[in-house]
Structure formats: structure tokens, C-alpha cells
Design brief:
Helix content is about 35%, strand content about 20%. By secondary structure, the protein is of the alpha/beta class. The longest helix has 24 residues, at about 5-30. About 45% of the residues are buried.
Length: about 280
């Protein structure tokens, strides 16, 4: 089955309704959320945190998308539900992160979002929708509305997870990035951490000199398919640089695992910056 333009627009509208409805519930729980037993299998503090808001948001989204699953014979992959492997059997599957940036949400930091993507069996995102409840911002790959802000402080910016600050070669990476920034006429390099993957990626799209990346690592982790699927779709729609850390297309339907540690990820505001980050990774 090949979805046509009208069908994608129909699914896009339903996905937008779903993320906004879930986001409103999340935002209403900012000061009243309950942290549940942490999830097993997480390899960072952020990946282990689970709240009542995560579960309520996914329930809302699934209820909204369920009729489309039946009508279009779609698969499902949600962060807070078991992978039923339907993503390998169906032509397309919904990929849902009901509350990306749960740790930021629990800390009251404006770095969380609701993320829904529709991905083909081949791993290509054909639709991505995100909603950031703390700013009431809705973005869709079919109707991107992002604007690039002026780089007021003239610094190269790295948006990253807090776990990146503990990377064994963090200080080497920082020095190399700082040197690169100065070589292209900027005043230096700065790091902004604390947000989830979705907000980090969107922040790159809205900045003229910014990046967000994770290099490969041996153990499971590095984020999962649902952390990146929607922003890959959005990035592709605005011709932003989105790839794995080696410059290849991100694998969004990997059979071995839903984790992305095997190749890492890379978002960059321009090609030259992306190529530098790729070379740096090869040298580490």
C-alpha cells in the first residue's frame, strides 16, 4: 500500500489533534505529576524516568490513532508499550513518544514535547508532528512553520542531553568545537543541556549555528526510534541536515533494536558544520 497525498493530509490532521490533546493533559500535570516506578532497561537517568503523564498521554494518542490503525492497516511502536513487531509486517507504522523529555518535565524545565511520526516499513518517515506544550507550539512536516533566529551572541551552540556532559571525551570535543567555531568567525562554543531529544532537534532547526549529536557507543542507549522519528521528518521537509553520526540516512526501523546507539545521530544547521562533526567523530 502506498499512501497518497490526501491520505497523508488526513492522517496529519488526526496526528495534530492527538499531540495537542496529549500535550494539554501533560501541561495540566506539570505541578501535580506522579513519578511511577522507574522503567527497566534504561541506560541513563532520563531513559529510566516514568510518570503518570507519560502513560496518560500515550493512552490519549492511541485512542485517537486507533481508528486509523484499523482503516489503513498500520503498525504501532510506542515508548510506553511493548514492541509488538508490527512495524516489520505493516507497510507503515505509527511511532509515538508521548512525553519526550520526561526528566525535563519532572524538573519543570521547558524541554519536553509530544512526538508522533508515521514511518514506512523501509524506515522512511513520511509524516512527523510534534507539540511543545510549554510554549503551545505545534509543528508538522507537511506544513513546517519554523523560523531561524539570529545568532545574537555569535557562538556555535550544542544542544545536548545531560548524559552527553559525562561523555569520556567531552572536554576534547568541547575544545575541538570551540576551535572550529572561532575558525569560522564566531566568538566560541557553548553547550545547552537539559531538554529532551525533540526539543534539542527543533532548537537546531531554529538556530543558524547549532548542532545536536550523539556518537556511536557499544551499549544500548543513544535514544530510540521514537526520540528522533518526527524531527527527522520535519528536518527533511525544511532541507535541514539530519543523519546518523556518519552522515548516512538514520535507520528508523532497525530489526536488531529500537535503540540508536549503533550509528548515533546528527542534526546540524548547515552542511559544513555537519561534515566537521563527522570528521571529529572519526578522529576520536
Amino acid at each position: 500500500m502506498q499512501l497518497d497525498k490526501n491520505q497523508l493530509e488526513y492522517l496529519n490532521n488526526i496526528a495534530k489533534e492527538a499531540v495537542v490533546e496529549a500535550g494539554k493533559i501533560i501541561q495540566s500535570m506539570v505541578h501535580t505529576h506522579k513519578r511511577l516506578n522507574d522503567k527497566k532497561g534504561g541506560h541513563s537517568v532520563a531513559s529510566q524516568v516514568l510518570t503518570e503523564a507519560d502513560l496518560k498521554a500515550q493512552d490519549v494518542i492511541l485512542k485517537k490513532l486507533q481508528p486509523t490503525i484499523v482503516e489503513f492497516d498500520l503498525g504501532w511502536l510506542g515508548e510506553e508499550s511493548e514492541d509488538d513487531k508490527s512495524r516489520f509486517r505493516k507497510d507503515y507504522f505509527w511511532c509515538v513518544d508521548p512525553l519526550d523529555g520526561t526528566l525535563a518535565f519532572t524538573e519543570g524545565y521547558p524541554g519536553y514535547a509530544v512526538s508522533v511520526a508515521l514511518i514506512s516499513k523501509q524506515g522512511d518517515p513520511v509524516l512527523g508532528v510534534i507539540y511543545m506544550p510549554f510554549t503551545d507550539t505545534l509543528v508538522s512536516s507537511l506544513e513546517p512553520s519554523l523560523t531561524v533566529a539570529e545568532n545574537a551572541d555569535k557562538k556555535l551552540c550544542l544542544y545536548c542531553d545531560k548524559s552527553f556532559l559525562r561523555h569520556p571525551k567531552y572536554y576534547l570535543i568541547f575544545r575541538q568545537m570551540d576551535n572550529y567555531a572561532k575558525s569560522i568567525g564566531l566568538r566560541g562554543f557553548k553547550v545547552i543541556s537539559g531538554a529532551g531529544a525533540v526539543v534539542n532537534a527543533i532548537s537546531v532547526f531554529q538556530h543558524s549555528d547549532a548542532c545536536y549529536f550523539k556518537y556511536p557507543k557499544p551499549g544500548n542507549g543513544g535514544g530510540s526510534i521514537w526520540d528522533f522519528a518526527a524531527t527527522v521528518a520535519i528536518g527533511n521537509s525544511i532541507s535541514a541536515w539530519v543523519s546518523d553520526s556518519k552522515g548516512q540516512k538514520m535507520d528508523l526501523n532497525r530489526k536488531e533494536s529500537a535503540y540508536m546507539n549503533h550509528t548515533g545521530i546528527l542534526y546540524a544547521s548547515n552542511k559544513e558544520l555537519a561534515e566537521f562533526i563527522i570528521r571529529l567523530g572519526e578522529e576520536l
